[in-house]
Amino acid sequence: MATPRDHDDRKQVPALSARFLLLLLAACTWAAPAVSADEPSRALFIYGGWDGHQPEAMRDLLVPWLESEGFEVIVSDTLEPYADADLMSGIDLVVQIWTMGEIGGPQLQGLLDAVESGTGIAGWHGGLGDAFRASPRYQYMIGGQWVEHPGNDGIRYRVNITDHEDPITAGLDDFDVVSEQYYMHVDPNNKVLATTTFDGEHDYWVKDAVMPVVWKRQYGKGRVFYTSLGHQANVFEIPEALTILKRGILWASRSRHEETPNLVTPVYPAR
Predict the structure, then answer these.
(1) 34, 67 in Cβ contact below 8 A?
(2) Structural domains counted in the chain
(3) Are residues 220 and 148 in contact, defined by beta-carbon separation less than 8 angstroms?
(4) Which of 45, 92, 235, 238 could anchor a disulfide with 40, C-beta 3.0 to 4.6 Å?
(5) Residue 46 sits in which domain range?
(6) How far is CA 180 from the centre of its chain?
(7) What CATH number is associated with residue 119?
(8) Are 163 and 189 in contact (CB under 8 A)?
(9) How, if at all, do strands 191-197 and 155-161 pair?
(10) Would you say 91 and 270 are in contact if contact means Cβ atoms under 8 Å apart?
């Protein structure tokens, strides 16, 4: 059921560490300013799917922050809001964490229509990049689909910032992560902001393969932001990872409120 956030009705998850909360407050200084009355004001936070990606912990991390940025946040643990055309027409931003699972035809079409009409969508890891595997049109919208994480969890790898001018990654240096290193099938026209390189230790045939970690794109009039980081909520104790996520979410929210330049960035040369 979709309702404005109500702390008393939500399931409780373990308290975030003091260090995590300090990093969250520090990252706020890197994010965009709070929205005003003529800026994005209504967000839909959808959470569910596979529990291993800690959807409730991520809800508890991001929903209060969105509210602090001036959003009215509608929180739902079902996909039904996507099928509500009246609701979706007034949504500036969808934030989704729903790994795997299935999405019904009316729900999928409602989401696609909303983003094409100008609703922004943002997410991370499997909650956006491994949702609804049987829905190619959804994958086309997001710009990629998880296919493997060689070595599984606990892999130390480097995230390389490849675009130092984009507002989402400006001022950030390369950083290390210990988590799942996502290998994805990716649209070669995404605007990629950060990458990682596989060392081939677990699957030797992908040694030196370079894979996007952060990208943005457009689907119709709607902005799409994705980062493959975030297998567990504690990945966002890394300041750079949290900053990228928060900046990307705010960027996606502005689809209806400012012009988006052409983001098509081809990897392959034209004839």
Answers:
(1) no
(2) 1
(3) no
(4) 92
(5) 3-145+212-252
(6) 16
(7) 3.40.50
(8) no
(9) antiparallel
(10) no
